[in-house]
Amino acid sequence: MSLLKVELLNKTFSSGGIWGGSRKLTHAVNNVSFSVARGETLAIVGESGSGKSTTARIVMRLLDADSGSITLLGEDMIQLKGAALRGKRKHMQMVFQDPFASLNPRMRIVDSVGEGLRVHAADLNRQQRRQRVAEILQQCGMDDSIMDRYPHQFSGGQRQRIGIARALVVSPDLLVLDEPVSALDVSVQAQILNLLKGLQSKHDLAYLFISHDLSVVRHVADRVAVMFAGYIVEQGNVEDVYAHPRHPYTRALLDARPVVHPAERRRNKDESAATLEAVDTDIAPAIEDTDTDESDTGCPYRYRCAQAQASCADYQVQLDQRQPAAADNNHAVACLFPLAATKK
Amino acid sequence: MLKIEHLSLAIATSDGAKAAVSDVSLTLEPGHVLGLVGESGCGKTLTAQSILRLGEHQGIVRSGGRVVLDEQDIFDMDEKALRKVRGGRVAMIFQEPMTALNPVFSIGAQLIEVIRLHLNMTRKQAEMRAAALLADVGLQDGERLLKQFPDGLSGGMRQRVLIAMAMAAEPDYIVADEPTTALDVSVQARIIDLLRKLQRERQLGMLLVTHDFGLIAELADEVAVMYAGQIVERGSVYDVFQKPAHPYTRALMNCRPEMAKKGEPLPAISGQVPAPGDWPDGCRFAARCPLADSDCTQSVAEDAWQADVHMARCVHVDLAAGEAGG
Ligand SMILES: Nc1ncnc2c1ncn2[C@@H]1O[C@H](COP(=O)(O)OP(=O)(O)OP(=O)(O)O)[C@@H](O)[C@H]1O
Ligand SMILES: Nc1ncnc2c1ncn2[C@@H]1O[C@H](COP(=O)(O)OP(=O)(O)OP(=O)(O)O)[C@@H](O)[C@H]1O
Ligand SMILES: [Mg+2]
Ligand SMILES: [Mg+2]
Fold first, then answer.
1. A270 alpha carbon – ligand 4 mean position (Å)
2. Of A79, A343, B202, B239, which is the most buried if we count CB atoms within 10 A?
3. Is B43 helix (H, G, I), strand (E, B) or coil?
4. Which residue has a Cα nearest atom 2 of ligand 1?
């Protein structure tokens, strides 16, 4: 049984037009379904605005979905309210890109990190709380001498360690990590990724790992879901998806990675990235429409897709497991004309 | 040519000046891209900003050396001459496209201001040039965009606007400090393409500051690796990637997740970059270096090792070179 099961989540934001024009609807999350097993890492990748953080916030119940269900440890999270919800929160915790943005600058580290214990381990006294915080900081590679310091004056890597400690202190089963290493340089990133890996095996943690860095995702994740414009357009084992991307968007995303050695410069000539060039646009991909219009249907990627055909405008985006070769039966793609399974 | 010669910088603090950059020499040539790479806090931005004396208002002082543009020391220039160089012959693209644009002025107003500061143009001419610049950086519908405010633009569009602004006065040199760091992969790839295209077409001399080896691999001709305020390795991008000579360069390259076997821990470098003022004698990397021994506590001559133009500041480069290439 999966630890977390998310089914058909939908979320639409409405806002005034940028220049006070007509109201605009942003379909930030569309029919998103996935599950995460104990001890497993599922990564969500996708470009800016594709709905990754919105999905995470819904899972964390920091934001209400319009529809859909979230099941954690067999219990329906959407129905939970008040104290019952707060109790359940102990099982899943969130780590942000900059955890200090949410920390009180006037609270000492020991109180910030131990905050969750006041709710989820109310029977602990002050001394026991302190003990537990020291223990968890140590696991996160921080000396307990920092406990009485205040949040400022910590480096990026230290901040993230403290953020992870704060999430772990209540012994959750699932961590939702939203771009946890995106602000860090490559060496600190390596330290934090190693730390996360170690903590995962030690505590059998499940991770929902959000990132737009495909190399990081390849290293940390077991499975990956690729999001575009609020839809999951491809999902599967990391190795399968990277070796045999079936959705044209996944292919483009993989092709956009910078090279690892100058000898591999594909775009050595003056030409641009072939796949991305098809339709060159930086427009935010979330589907937006005014509430007077009919909502846009069809494949959201068709405007950028080199393979798009007329029928893509009528396609009901849906992950299909039967499309790929039988060998990788966890690998699903939402595309009318998926790339050949063998194509590298 | 634009040359940084034996430049040292210090940070003025309440308890005296702290050395932050020591004896850095770099040369920017037209048509060439020089990458400056290193961990966070090693002094890349301070070095890059010193080219235009941008740190002065934040208490950064030059403690030695020069920055020479056409035989003239930038540090000898008066305010007026300096303003002409800034955004004129030498343009800068900053790390944060969000904060580098002023939210209360339209894109057009900001672009036109830069154009008119440096080029002798009427308002009308400047407006036309602004629209043309936006087209050059791949932003269609320039007319409409000029009236927009930064808030309404995506991160990628803002970075394009900043690049357009940098190109406004047809600079010869461009200093790009983490130009793609805040952007997601797909936008990043397009900005890389754009920078490459502009740099080649206009034969710009570019200083590319980043901690991302991928960006260096994509764009740079030469690389300088910086650690704790010093250049520790310098060479052509091929040489440095092929045969990294300094243990620091190797360590940094190896902790990229691309290099790792799945399931195995990344070979992270333990510890962190010493802050300005905390630099040890001898090799500044020694405390974190797997090859360090008693030799390393002595002062290390600059460029202790060189092969052609590939140089490294390490007494154990032979060991390092032997281990490399894997
Ligand atoms: N509170 C909100 N009100 C209106 N629109 C919103 C809100 N939050 C998110 N959106 C919109 O929903 C879409 C998805 O945003 P989200 O933050 O989930 O993307 P993301 O994939 O996390 O992007 P990034 O990589 O930039 O963090 C975007 O178009 C965004 O502008
Ligand atoms: N105005 C300032 N006042 C005090 N210290 C400063 C100032 N500017 C930079 N520093 C310090 O000088 C050192 C070098 O900073 P710099 O910004 O050049 O690093 P960097 O290599 O660009 O790092 P990053 O990759 O994080 O941008 C750091 O320790 C930084 O904290
Ligand atoms: Mg996000
Ligand atoms: Mg910097």
1. 29
2. B239
3. coil
4. A13
Which ligand has the shortest distance to the CA of B275? 2
Which residue out of A154, A155, A185 has the highest number of ligand 2 atoms within 8 Å of its CB and is therefore the one to mutate? A185
Nearest to B260 among A47, A219, A282 (CB): A219
Region at B174 (left for phi over 0; alpha for psi -120 to 50; beta for the rest): beta
For chain A, count helices (H), then strands (E).
Answer: 10, 12
Q: Looking at residue B98, what is its pLDDT?
A: 63
Question: Residue A324 pairs with which residues in a beta bridge?
Answer: none
Name the closest-CA residue to atom 9, ligand 1.
Answer: A54
**A302-334 pLDDT, tens per residue?**
998 988 999 999 999 988 766 545 445 689 999
If pLDDT is split at 50, 70 and 90, which confidence band does A273 have?
very low
A262 touching B, CB under 8 A?
A: yes
User: What's the whole-model pTM score?
Assistant: 0.90
Establish whether residue B277 lines the binding site of ligand 2, counting it when its CB lies within 6 angstroms of any ligand atom: no
Whether A11 and A29 have beta carbons less than 8 Å apart is answered as: yes
Q: Is the pLDDT of residue B190 over 50?
A: yes
* Tokens (6 digits) for B218: 């994509």
| Integer angstrom CA distances of residue A261 from B13, B181, B209, B240, B256 | 41, 19, 17, 10, 12
Residues of A with Cβ-Cβ distance to B278 under 8 angstroms: none
Cα atoms found within 13 Å of the Cα of residue B224, Cβ hemisphere only: 24
Query: What CA–CA distances, in Å, run from A105 to A109, A143, B251?
Result: 9, 20, 35
Q: What phi, psi does B34 have (nearest 5°)?
A: -105, 120
Q: What pLDDT is attached to residue B188?
A: 84
Is B42 a pocket residue for ligand 2 (Cβ < 6 Å)? yes
The Cα B244–Cα B128 span in angstroms is 48
- For chain A, domains (ranges, CATH) are 2-16+23-221 (3.40.50.300), 244-333 (no CATH)
SS3 B115: helix
Which residue does chain A place closest to B256, by CA atoms?
A186
- State how far residue B68 is from chain A, nearest Cα, in angstroms: 30
Task: Give the model's pLDDT for residue A274.
Answer: 39
Residue A232 pLDDT exceeds 90: yes
